[in-house]
DNA sequence: TTATAATAAGACTAAATCAGTCCAATTAAG
DNA sequence: CTTAATTGGACTGATTTAGTCTTATTATAA
């Protein structure tokens, strides 16, 4: 049960941008160097985030990437979900796959709710929360 | 982000046993047939669960497996954790691995708490809860 | 109008992990 | 002492993950 490296890197990259001035573009080269994420891999990650609307990118000289919205309007879920292809914790929750036991399955409901609870946390936490929280994060408790 | 097939199967197998009479032993052959889990794989799963104390096994003629405790005293966590080798959602939370950005990492605390919240659910839900809950599971809400 | 500095898109590859199998050894019952 | 079972561990094939490479495309500036 781990998030992919891509999702993990994605968070780091978005966090990096969020801590920098918003009115500039940052080249992949620069971000890669600063975060120690392999440049070519980082490129793919950004491509995904551009498609999902979290990041804006600009080609050509002076180009680079920037946040599409301010950090307070980007949730953790918005960064993680597009980078994490398979989000079903167990078979029951993964469409395509079907399980021979699904009819008498006593676990599916439990997992569905548990997973939902997890996503609700990701949905209700913004990148800004992470930066501000610093050491005091996740759930208002 | 998915649990391994082994953990998934493990739940199914334990649920199967929990719904059967407790004072008998069940051969892998029988369980494999009933649940449609490949026998050799199921064998390995039970070996793990025996080691972690959830299942009792008996060699020889008339042998087989049974729950080590009654379903109300087995939590979901006790079944999942031993079958799921890597339980750290992100790098930050996985011992061995170290991340070049760990010092300035704004995400680690968030993930730690989120993951903890997840485990608390697994810890506070028993196999009996699943069977009884049937269609009304996960968290008291 | 051309050189250059950037991202886009997608094919490709290496390594790791996962899921599953096989087999020789052990144990207990009949 | 034969048979029915699990044990433990090595082994394998398939899939997924992480990362790279290569060829376009686009924008800026000299
Ligand atoms: S384990 Fe197959 S449907 Fe739940
Ligand atoms: S991402 Fe590396 S320590 Fe958090």
- Mind telling me the CATH superfamily name of chain A? Winged helix-like DNA-binding domain superfamily/Winged helix DNA-binding domain
Largest interface: A-B, 48 and 48 residues
Fold-level CATH name of chain A:
Arc Repressor Mutant, subunit A
Highest CATH level, the class of chain A:
Mainly Alpha
Determine the strand fraction of chain A and express it as a percent band: 5-15%
Radius of gyration of chain A: 17 Å
Cα end-to-end separation of chain A? 25 Å
Oligomer: homodimer
Bound molecules: FE2/S2 (inorganic) cluster
Contiguous low-pLDDT stretches of chain A (5 residues minimum) are 135-141
Specify the CATH architecture of chain A.
Answer: Orthogonal Bundle
Count of spatially separate domains of chain A: 1
Instruction: Report on the biggest sheet of chain A.
Output: 2 strands, antiparallel
Strand ordering within the main sheet of chain A: 1-2
The H-and-E topology of chain A, N to C, reads as: HHHEEHHH
Number of strands of chain A: 2
The helix count of chain A comes to: 6
Q: What best-fitting shape of chain A do the alpha-carbon axes yield? A: elongated
Mean residue pLDDT of chain A: 91
Instruction: Bin the helical content of chain A.
Output: 40-55%
**Which class best fits the helix and strand makeup of chain A?**
mainly alpha
């Amino acid at each position: 049960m781990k998030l992919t490296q891509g999702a993990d890197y994605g968070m780091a990259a978005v966090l990096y941008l969020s801590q920098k001035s918003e009115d500039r573009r940052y080249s992949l080269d620069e971000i890669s160097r600063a975060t120690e994420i392999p440049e070519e891999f980082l490129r793919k990650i950004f491509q995904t985030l551009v498609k999902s609307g979290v990041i804006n990118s600009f080609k050509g000289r002076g180009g680079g990437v920037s946040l599409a919205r301010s950090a307070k309007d980007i949730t953790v879920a918005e960064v993680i979900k597009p980078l994490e292809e398979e989000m079903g914790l167990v078979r029951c929750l993964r469409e395509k796959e079907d399980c021979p036991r699904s009819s008498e399955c006593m676990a599916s409901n439990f997992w569905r709710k548990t997973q939902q609870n997890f996503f609700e946390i990701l949905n209700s936490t913004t990148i800004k929360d992470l930066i501000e929280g610093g050491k005091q994060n996740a759930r208002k408790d």
